[in-house]
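Q: What does the predicted 3D structure of Cellulase family glycosylhydrolase look like?
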Amino acid sequence: MKVFLTALLSATMATVAFAQETPREIWSKKKAAKWYKQHAWQRGSNFIPSYAINQLEMWQAETFDTAAINRELGYAAGIGMNSMRVFLHHAAWEQDAEGFKQRINNYLDISDRNGISTMFVLFDDCWNNTYATGTQPAPKTGIHNSGWLQDPGIRRETSPALTDTLERYVKDILTTFATDKRILLWDLYNEPGNSKYGNKSMDLLQKVFRWARQTPAEQPLSAGVWSKDLTDLNVYQLNNSDVITYHNYADEKEHQQAIDSLRKYERPLICTEYMARTRNSLFQNIMPLLKKEKVAAYNWGLVSGKTNTIYAWDTPMRDGGEPAIWFHDIFRQDGTPYKPEEVTVIKSLTGAQ
Protein backbone atom coordinates (compact mmCIF):
# COMPACT_ATOMS: atom_id res chain seq x y z
CA MET A 1 0.00 0.00 0.00
CA LYS A 2 2.77 2.46 0.92
CA VAL A 3 4.59 1.81 -2.34
CA PHE A 4 1.43 2.39 -4.37
CA LEU A 5 0.56 5.59 -2.50
CA THR A 6 4.08 6.87 -3.15
CA ALA A 7 3.57 6.08 -6.82
CA LEU A 8 0.28 7.97 -6.77
CA LEU A 9 1.97 11.07 -5.37
CA SER A 10 4.70 10.86 -8.00
CA ALA A 11 2.10 10.39 -10.72
CA THR A 12 0.12 13.40 -9.54
CA MET A 13 3.25 15.54 -9.73
CA ALA A 14 4.01 14.11 -13.16
CA THR A 15 0.51 14.97 -14.35
CA VAL A 16 1.24 18.64 -13.79
CA ALA A 17 4.60 18.37 -15.53
CA PHE A 18 3.27 16.58 -18.59
CA ALA A 19 0.20 18.80 -18.96
CA GLN A 20 2.35 21.35 -20.78
CA GLU A 21 4.00 18.89 -23.13
CA THR A 22 3.23 18.82 -26.83
CA PRO A 23 1.02 15.79 -27.53
CA ARG A 24 2.99 12.83 -28.78
CA GLU A 25 2.52 11.65 -32.34
CA ILE A 26 0.43 8.66 -33.32
CA TRP A 27 2.47 5.47 -33.27
CA SER A 28 4.11 4.52 -36.53
CA LYS A 29 2.71 1.44 -38.25
CA LYS A 30 5.98 -0.33 -37.52
CA LYS A 31 5.77 0.41 -33.80
CA ALA A 32 2.14 -0.69 -33.67
CA ALA A 33 2.96 -3.97 -35.42
CA LYS A 34 5.90 -4.61 -33.09
CA TRP A 35 3.71 -4.01 -30.04
CA TYR A 36 1.05 -6.39 -31.33
CA LYS A 37 3.54 -9.17 -31.99
CA GLN A 38 4.77 -8.97 -28.41
CA HIS A 39 1.42 -10.24 -27.16
CA ALA A 40 -0.25 -13.59 -27.50
CA TRP A 41 -3.63 -13.60 -29.23
CA GLN A 42 -5.79 -11.55 -26.87
CA ARG A 43 -9.24 -12.99 -26.32
CA GLY A 44 -11.75 -12.17 -23.65
CA SER A 45 -14.93 -10.33 -22.77
CA ASN A 46 -16.26 -6.93 -21.90
CA PHE A 47 -16.28 -7.34 -18.14
CA ILE A 48 -18.71 -5.93 -15.61
CA PRO A 49 -19.10 -8.11 -12.49
CA SER A 50 -22.56 -9.62 -12.02
CA TYR A 51 -23.16 -7.58 -8.85
CA ALA A 52 -22.93 -4.25 -10.70
CA ILE A 53 -25.62 -2.59 -12.79
CA ASN A 54 -23.11 -0.04 -14.11
CA GLN A 55 -19.59 1.33 -13.84
CA LEU A 56 -20.21 3.21 -10.59
CA GLU A 57 -21.58 0.17 -8.80
CA MET A 58 -18.49 -1.73 -9.88
CA TRP A 59 -15.98 0.92 -8.76
CA GLN A 60 -17.38 2.83 -5.78
CA ALA A 61 -15.83 1.88 -2.46
CA GLU A 62 -19.11 0.75 -0.89
CA THR A 63 -19.80 -1.82 -3.60
CA PHE A 64 -16.36 -2.76 -4.95
CA ASP A 65 -16.25 -6.52 -4.40
CA THR A 66 -12.84 -8.12 -4.91
CA ALA A 67 -14.10 -11.63 -4.07
CA ALA A 68 -16.76 -11.49 -6.78
CA ILE A 69 -14.31 -10.04 -9.30
CA ASN A 70 -11.76 -12.76 -8.57
CA ARG A 71 -14.37 -15.49 -8.81
CA GLU A 72 -15.74 -14.29 -12.14
CA LEU A 73 -12.35 -13.63 -13.70
CA GLY A 74 -11.56 -17.17 -12.65
CA TYR A 75 -14.42 -18.38 -14.84
CA ALA A 76 -12.82 -16.54 -17.77
CA ALA A 77 -9.35 -17.89 -17.06
CA GLY A 78 -10.80 -21.39 -16.86
CA ILE A 79 -11.83 -21.28 -20.53
CA GLY A 80 -8.56 -19.76 -21.70
CA MET A 81 -9.49 -16.09 -21.85
CA ASN A 82 -6.52 -13.80 -21.24
CA SER A 83 -7.85 -10.25 -21.48
CA MET A 84 -10.84 -8.13 -20.41
CA ARG A 85 -12.24 -4.80 -21.56
CA VAL A 86 -13.35 -2.82 -18.50
CA PHE A 87 -15.23 0.49 -18.28
CA LEU A 88 -14.27 3.24 -15.84
CA HIS A 89 -16.31 6.34 -14.94
CA HIS A 90 -14.97 9.79 -14.13
CA ALA A 91 -17.57 10.31 -11.37
CA ALA A 92 -15.93 7.57 -9.27
CA TRP A 93 -12.62 9.43 -9.62
CA GLU A 94 -14.21 12.80 -8.85
CA GLN A 95 -15.81 11.34 -5.72
CA ASP A 96 -12.59 9.75 -4.39
CA ALA A 97 -9.61 10.00 -6.74
CA GLU A 98 -7.01 8.25 -4.60
CA GLY A 99 -9.40 5.53 -3.49
CA PHE A 100 -10.53 4.98 -7.07
CA LYS A 101 -6.96 4.56 -8.27
CA GLN A 102 -6.24 2.14 -5.45
CA ARG A 103 -9.26 0.08 -6.46
CA ILE A 104 -8.04 0.09 -10.06
CA ASN A 105 -4.71 -1.21 -8.79
CA ASN A 106 -6.51 -3.88 -6.76
CA TYR A 107 -8.48 -4.91 -9.83
CA LEU A 108 -5.30 -5.14 -11.88
CA ASP A 109 -3.70 -7.30 -9.19
CA ILE A 110 -6.63 -9.72 -9.28
CA SER A 111 -6.73 -9.74 -13.07
CA ASP A 112 -3.00 -10.31 -13.33
CA ARG A 113 -3.15 -13.23 -10.88
CA ASN A 114 -5.71 -14.80 -13.22
CA GLY A 115 -3.41 -14.31 -16.21
CA ILE A 116 -5.64 -11.63 -17.69
CA SER A 117 -4.61 -8.30 -19.22
CA THR A 118 -6.87 -5.25 -19.12
CA MET A 119 -8.13 -2.74 -21.64
CA PHE A 120 -9.68 0.24 -19.86
CA VAL A 121 -12.43 2.39 -21.40
CA LEU A 122 -12.67 6.05 -20.32
CA PHE A 123 -15.68 7.74 -21.95
CA ASP A 124 -18.93 6.29 -23.30
CA ASP A 125 -21.95 7.56 -25.26
CA CYS A 126 -24.22 4.56 -24.57
CA TRP A 127 -27.43 4.24 -22.55
CA ASN A 128 -28.41 6.57 -19.66
CA ASN A 129 -27.29 10.16 -20.25
CA THR A 130 -27.16 11.26 -16.59
CA TYR A 131 -25.41 9.79 -13.57
CA ALA A 132 -25.22 10.20 -9.81
CA THR A 133 -22.76 8.74 -7.35
CA GLY A 134 -23.96 6.77 -4.34
CA THR A 135 -26.48 3.96 -4.35
CA GLN A 136 -27.32 2.91 -7.89
CA PRO A 137 -30.81 1.98 -9.12
CA ALA A 138 -32.09 -1.57 -9.25
CA PRO A 139 -32.33 -3.14 -12.73
CA LYS A 140 -35.51 -2.58 -14.70
CA THR A 141 -37.09 -5.98 -15.17
CA GLY A 142 -36.18 -7.61 -18.45
CA ILE A 143 -34.51 -4.53 -19.96
CA HIS A 144 -31.01 -4.66 -21.44
CA ASN A 145 -28.50 -2.42 -19.63
CA SER A 146 -31.22 -0.42 -17.88
CA GLY A 147 -28.73 1.22 -15.53
CA TRP A 148 -25.64 1.64 -17.71
CA LEU A 149 -24.17 5.14 -17.69
CA GLN A 150 -22.85 7.44 -20.35
CA ASP A 151 -19.70 9.28 -19.41
CA PRO A 152 -19.97 12.24 -19.28
CA GLY A 153 -23.41 12.28 -20.92
CA ILE A 154 -25.46 15.44 -21.42
CA ARG A 155 -23.70 17.34 -18.62
CA ARG A 156 -20.95 18.22 -21.06
CA GLU A 157 -23.53 20.40 -22.84
CA THR A 158 -24.85 22.10 -19.70
CA SER A 159 -21.69 22.38 -17.60
CA PRO A 160 -18.69 23.79 -19.48
CA ALA A 161 -16.58 23.54 -16.31
CA LEU A 162 -16.90 19.75 -16.54
CA THR A 163 -14.32 19.79 -19.33
CA ASP A 164 -11.60 20.82 -16.88
CA THR A 165 -12.60 17.96 -14.57
CA LEU A 166 -12.51 15.47 -17.42
CA GLU A 167 -9.06 16.65 -18.47
CA ARG A 168 -7.70 16.22 -14.96
CA TYR A 169 -9.30 12.79 -14.75
CA VAL A 170 -7.83 11.52 -18.02
CA LYS A 171 -4.37 12.84 -17.28
CA ASP A 172 -4.35 11.58 -13.70
CA ILE A 173 -5.44 8.05 -14.59
CA LEU A 174 -3.14 7.67 -17.60
CA THR A 175 -0.17 9.17 -15.80
CA THR A 176 -0.66 7.04 -12.69
CA PHE A 177 -0.71 3.84 -14.76
CA ALA A 178 1.50 5.05 -17.59
CA THR A 179 4.01 2.21 -17.39
CA ASP A 180 1.75 -0.50 -15.97
CA LYS A 181 2.34 -3.69 -17.94
CA ARG A 182 -0.95 -5.13 -16.72
CA ILE A 183 -2.78 -2.63 -18.94
CA LEU A 184 -2.89 -3.62 -22.59
CA LEU A 185 -4.48 -0.53 -24.12
CA TRP A 186 -6.46 2.63 -23.37
CA ASP A 187 -9.81 2.67 -25.17
CA LEU A 188 -10.47 6.37 -24.88
CA TYR A 189 -14.11 6.62 -25.96
CA ASN A 190 -16.73 3.91 -26.42
CA GLU A 191 -19.04 4.44 -29.40
CA PRO A 192 -18.71 8.21 -29.78
CA GLY A 193 -21.77 9.61 -31.49
CA ASN A 194 -24.17 7.01 -30.12
CA SER A 195 -27.47 8.02 -28.43
CA LYS A 196 -28.06 10.47 -31.30
CA TYR A 197 -25.08 12.64 -30.35
CA GLY A 198 -23.53 12.26 -33.79
CA ASN A 199 -20.87 14.87 -34.47
CA LYS A 200 -21.60 16.55 -31.16
CA SER A 201 -19.15 13.99 -29.77
CA MET A 202 -16.30 15.15 -31.99
CA ASP A 203 -15.10 17.86 -29.63
CA LEU A 204 -14.70 15.51 -26.67
CA LEU A 205 -13.24 12.80 -28.89
CA GLN A 206 -10.54 15.18 -30.11
CA LYS A 207 -9.89 16.44 -26.60
CA VAL A 208 -9.47 13.00 -25.03
CA PHE A 209 -6.92 11.99 -27.67
CA ARG A 210 -5.01 15.22 -27.06
CA TRP A 211 -5.13 14.86 -23.28
CA ALA A 212 -4.03 11.23 -23.45
CA ARG A 213 -1.11 12.09 -25.72
CA GLN A 214 0.02 14.74 -23.24
CA THR A 215 0.65 12.01 -20.67
CA PRO A 216 3.59 9.59 -20.50
CA ALA A 217 1.31 6.59 -21.11
CA GLU A 218 3.30 3.85 -22.83
CA GLN A 219 0.27 1.79 -23.83
CA PRO A 220 -1.40 2.35 -27.20
CA LEU A 221 -4.43 4.62 -27.53
CA SER A 222 -7.53 3.89 -29.56
CA ALA A 223 -11.25 4.58 -29.96
CA GLY A 224 -13.25 1.97 -31.80
CA VAL A 225 -15.33 2.56 -34.90
CA TRP A 226 -18.80 1.08 -34.67
CA SER A 227 -21.19 2.69 -37.20
CA LYS A 228 -20.39 3.30 -40.85
CA ASP A 229 -22.89 6.17 -40.86
CA LEU A 230 -20.72 8.36 -38.60
CA THR A 231 -18.28 9.32 -41.33
CA ASP A 232 -16.54 12.27 -39.68
CA LEU A 233 -16.05 10.50 -36.38
CA ASN A 234 -14.83 7.34 -38.10
CA VAL A 235 -12.23 9.24 -40.11
CA TYR A 236 -10.91 10.90 -36.98
CA GLN A 237 -10.84 7.67 -34.95
CA LEU A 238 -9.12 5.64 -37.65
CA ASN A 239 -6.52 8.32 -38.33
CA ASN A 240 -5.68 8.94 -34.69
CA SER A 241 -5.68 5.47 -33.11
CA ASP A 242 -2.34 3.73 -32.56
CA VAL A 243 -4.06 0.41 -33.24
CA ILE A 244 -7.47 -0.05 -34.88
CA THR A 245 -10.37 -1.13 -32.68
CA TYR A 246 -13.90 -1.78 -33.87
CA HIS A 247 -17.29 -3.29 -33.00
CA ASN A 248 -19.20 -5.78 -35.12
CA TYR A 249 -22.30 -7.74 -34.17
CA ALA A 250 -23.00 -9.21 -37.63
CA ASP A 251 -22.51 -12.71 -39.00
CA GLU A 252 -19.21 -14.04 -40.30
CA LYS A 253 -19.71 -12.78 -43.88
CA GLU A 254 -20.27 -9.17 -42.85
CA HIS A 255 -17.61 -9.40 -40.16
CA GLN A 256 -15.07 -10.59 -42.73
CA GLN A 257 -15.96 -7.62 -44.91
CA ALA A 258 -15.35 -5.28 -41.98
CA ILE A 259 -11.94 -6.83 -41.33
CA ASP A 260 -11.01 -6.55 -44.99
CA SER A 261 -12.04 -2.88 -45.12
CA LEU A 262 -9.96 -2.03 -42.03
CA ARG A 263 -6.84 -3.83 -43.27
CA LYS A 264 -6.06 -0.88 -45.53
CA TYR A 265 -4.93 1.09 -42.48
CA GLU A 266 -2.09 -1.43 -42.03
CA ARG A 267 -2.39 -1.48 -38.27
CA PRO A 268 -3.22 -4.25 -35.82
CA LEU A 269 -6.93 -4.95 -35.50
CA ILE A 270 -8.81 -5.52 -32.25
CA CYS A 271 -12.51 -6.36 -32.18
CA THR A 272 -13.62 -4.88 -28.87
CA GLU A 273 -17.28 -5.96 -29.18
CA TYR A 274 -18.94 -8.93 -30.88
CA MET A 275 -21.31 -11.84 -30.06
CA ALA A 276 -25.06 -11.26 -30.20
CA ARG A 277 -26.69 -14.65 -30.56
CA THR A 278 -29.97 -13.55 -32.12
CA ARG A 279 -28.02 -11.66 -34.80
CA ASN A 280 -25.93 -14.72 -35.70
CA SER A 281 -22.76 -13.27 -34.20
CA LEU A 282 -21.69 -16.39 -32.32
CA PHE A 283 -18.62 -17.93 -30.76
CA GLN A 284 -18.93 -20.77 -33.26
CA ASN A 285 -18.65 -18.59 -36.36
CA ILE A 286 -16.92 -15.37 -35.27
CA MET A 287 -14.24 -16.44 -32.81
CA PRO A 288 -12.56 -18.84 -35.31
CA LEU A 289 -12.61 -16.06 -37.91
CA LEU A 290 -10.94 -13.61 -35.54
CA LYS A 291 -8.27 -16.12 -34.58
CA LYS A 292 -7.59 -16.96 -38.23
CA GLU A 293 -7.31 -13.27 -39.08
CA LYS A 294 -5.14 -12.59 -36.00
CA VAL A 295 -7.66 -10.10 -34.66
CA ALA A 296 -7.90 -9.75 -30.88
CA ALA A 297 -11.41 -10.71 -29.75
CA TYR A 298 -13.64 -9.33 -26.97
CA ASN A 299 -17.24 -10.51 -26.83
CA TRP A 300 -19.85 -8.58 -24.86
CA GLY A 301 -20.55 -10.08 -21.48
CA LEU A 302 -19.03 -12.69 -19.22
CA VAL A 303 -21.42 -13.46 -16.33
CA SER A 304 -25.16 -12.80 -16.40
CA GLY A 305 -26.07 -10.24 -13.77
CA LYS A 306 -27.62 -6.88 -13.02
CA THR A 307 -26.89 -5.44 -16.46
CA ASN A 308 -29.57 -7.76 -17.91
CA THR A 309 -27.58 -8.27 -21.09
CA ILE A 310 -29.08 -11.71 -21.63
CA TYR A 311 -31.95 -9.63 -23.07
CA ALA A 312 -31.57 -8.09 -26.52
CA TRP A 313 -31.15 -4.35 -27.03
CA ASP A 314 -34.58 -3.89 -28.58
CA THR A 315 -36.51 -6.86 -27.13
CA PRO A 316 -37.40 -6.27 -23.48
CA MET A 317 -39.15 -9.01 -21.50
CA ARG A 318 -41.37 -7.24 -19.01
CA ASP A 319 -42.02 -10.43 -17.03
CA GLY A 320 -38.29 -10.87 -16.40
CA GLY A 321 -38.29 -14.41 -17.65
CA GLU A 322 -35.23 -16.03 -19.16
CA PRO A 323 -35.18 -15.51 -22.93
CA ALA A 324 -35.17 -18.59 -25.12
CA ILE A 325 -31.85 -17.37 -26.52
CA TRP A 326 -29.51 -15.27 -24.43
CA PHE A 327 -28.34 -12.16 -26.31
CA HIS A 328 -24.97 -11.81 -24.50
CA ASP A 329 -23.00 -13.43 -21.63
CA ILE A 330 -21.36 -16.82 -21.19
CA PHE A 331 -21.89 -17.92 -17.59
CA ARG A 332 -24.56 -18.01 -14.95
CA GLN A 333 -23.46 -16.57 -11.61
CA ASP A 334 -22.54 -19.98 -10.20
CA GLY A 335 -20.10 -20.50 -13.07
CA THR A 336 -22.33 -22.83 -15.07
CA PRO A 337 -22.08 -22.10 -18.81
CA TYR A 338 -25.26 -20.96 -20.54
CA LYS A 339 -24.32 -23.23 -23.43
CA PRO A 340 -21.68 -25.88 -22.68
CA GLU A 341 -21.11 -26.40 -26.40
CA GLU A 342 -20.01 -22.75 -26.71
CA VAL A 343 -17.47 -23.20 -23.94
CA THR A 344 -16.17 -26.27 -25.76
CA VAL A 345 -15.60 -24.14 -28.86
CA ILE A 346 -13.92 -21.37 -26.89
CA LYS A 347 -11.60 -23.79 -25.10
CA SER A 348 -10.68 -25.47 -28.38
CA LEU A 349 -9.59 -22.07 -29.75
CA THR A 350 -7.76 -20.92 -26.63
CA GLY A 351 -6.10 -24.23 -25.84
CA ALA A 352 -7.64 -24.43 -22.38
CA GLN A 353 -7.86 -27.88 -20.83
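A (community wiki): The C-alpha coordinates above were generated from the sequence. The chain has one domain: 2-19+30-350. The first strand starts at residue 43 and ends at 46.
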